[in-house]
Amino acid sequence: MKKRGIPTLEDVALSSNVSTATVSRYLNNPEKVAKSTRSQIQKAIQKLGYTPNLGGRMLASNKVRMVGAIIPTMANAMFSNGIQAFQEELSRNDITLLISSSGYDPKQELQQMQSLLASGAGGLLLIGNERPKKTLKFLNQRNLPYVVTWAYKDGVEGFYAGFNNRQAAFDLAKIVIEYGHTKIAMIAGISENNDRAGGRIEGVKDAIAEHSDSVRLVDLIETKYRMETGGNAFDALMSRVDKPSVIMCGNDVLAAGVIMRARQRGIRVPEDVSVTGFDDLNIASALTPSLTTVRVPHFAMGRAAAKLLLKLIRKDDTAKSIEFSTEIILRDSLRRIG
Amino acid sequence: MKKRGIPTLEDVALSSNVSTATVSRYLNNPEKVAKSTRSQIQKAIQKLGYTPNLGGRMLASNKVRMVGAIIPTMANAMFSNGIQAFQEELSRNDITLLISSSGYDPKQELQQMQSLLASGAGGLLLIGNERPKKTLKFLNQRNLPYVVTWAYKDGVEGFYAGFNNRQAAFDLAKIVIEYGHTKIAMIAGISENNDRAGGRIEGVKDAIAEHSDSVRLVDLIETKYRMETGGNAFDALMSRVDKPSVIMCGNDVLAAGVIMRARQRGIRVPEDVSVTGFDDLNIASALTPSLTTVRVPHFAMGRAAAKLLLKLIRKDDTAKSIEFSTEIILRDSLRRIG
DNA sequence: CTGAAAGCGCTTACAG
DNA sequence: CTGAAAGCGCTTACAG
Lengths: 338, 338
Known about the structure:
The structure is a homodimer.
Chain A: H1 9-16, H2 20-28, H3 35-48, H4 54-60, E1 66-71, H5 80-92, E2 96-101, H6 106-118, E3 121-127, H7 133-142, E4 146-149, E5 159-163, H8 165-178, E6 183-188, H9 195-209, E7 216-222, H10 227-238, E8 246-249, H11 252-265, E9 274-276, H12 282-286, E10 293-295, H13 298-313, E11 322-324, E12 327-329
Parallel strand pairs in A: 1-2, 1-3, 3-4, 4-5, 5-11, 6-7, 6-8, 8-9
Antiparallel strand pairs in A: 10-12
Helix pairs in contact in A: 1-2, 1-3, 5-13, 8-9, 10-11
The first copy, chain A, binds a DNA duplex through residues 2, 8-10, 18-22, 24-25, 27-28, 32-34, 37, 52-62.
């Protein structure tokens, strides 16, 4: 027992009159050790209070014991449920989750990536598909298994457990148009470096383009996903001469901000203006009026992402991207007009 | 570059014409390396995409590089902001966060604890103060630094960065009583193994006890922190002959469920019944009516917890528990009566 | 079923 | 300011 008094594998070997190789075998593949030897070792471990040293293990073997996730933010509930499911699935496989946040900043994301790798991550969960060449090069160079979630792209290399933001927003916008709305405004997330926000904008534009004779995009404001900024954008929109009949929001947090601000201003939703969200967070059903939004299968997605990542780590050939479908949830904040 | 193609410190040394010792120094104490050497090494690291190997580092030195957090759940926004702040502060100190969730189950908490330690955690963030002897013994035996948050206890061993749930609930209940409410019902979280939920219940009871001649606790329902269970509890309360004039909820999620269900039932808040929450999540201000609640300084608390834990890890003598005060946020869901 | 030995990638006195 | 070398605790072919 060296300096720090912490018993090592060697101490166990000495104390049980076998080699370190045998103790190691006992620890990792007990069935490869004779029964009588097993109990000797077991006793020695008990007596010494031995616990394997992670550093030694990591260095000597190459097993993945941890994976990392980098999410834009833990504030708000946007990613909570997905990450919860991701972590639970990892835990079931005896893998620990390292987590960090990037604040929607690609530079920070790269930095966090490096730091997670340095912390032993043997795989990564990333949000969205848009990142600088430098980051991609790093990932590639390290040959690190990773899964992209919250987004989905067809026919592209890489592995996804996500959904098509553009399609989902398109579907919702089609319904909005079908409901008779011709003057659409959008309050979106900031699309730079954020393909989810960007995709949602594109989806709305696509739908409008299909009805370019009658429907138009009155205004588009990009802003941070916060209730307050959503409220501010709402004020800006409603002070236009050319007011929208519906405000499509890039997520539920923005929509909550809009609905709250509308109440403060005495503007009625949906009588004076309709509102839609995206995500179907808890908040969506709790708002007054309840929010028409897009339901994203956060939980299933997080879990699937973990399973996929695990397969990649194990070099399982059956690893395959999964696209989740989203669902339009019609509630009271969107009304038929015209 | 050995087999797996992952560059090692040696590769960097080779590529920059210095010894591994110097590269290591550059990594750990750049100021001990000549400027010109630094930039050589920097270039090589860039070129190779080198990231230090954790196993090697852990084995060679004894520095703490990761700490773990075990939170009851990541679903909902309850802990999100606190954990976000915690992680950011750790990141500033080059420490990675290992995270896991216990589902409010003490057995799982212990298991997660062991697994986080086996994953290299050199310190722990724990929520609340109530845990089985077995868990405490384990913590003690490992002599592991840990900080308790979301709770605070005076004159007890251990380190806290939290607040007094009982006092906070007491303060809110006093105001409720001052507003003229005499028939109080409470929908609380499940208090078994949850001192935060328990403390909030006690606080309300304390306040009622001070007015036992005029005020009483009509009913107390303990349930999971979910909107739906909150709604169900609301139904149960409003089907009583002896209806409460106010429903104090153990947190904002429950309160949101109550307000939503009330609307569905055609029961007006606060005209027919007042409602209060706890936490001041985003949702609180977005509800209609907006929710009277207790504001918890999640962000400051998470950050302080990280700083405290870091001090404990560094064996800094100035490490000291911090108690945060909470604030009553008066909004529309609570009205004066009588 | 077991052991001797090489090696995993890093840090750190120790010398210079 | 820099390098040679020992050593951290484990796993794993390879022999036997």
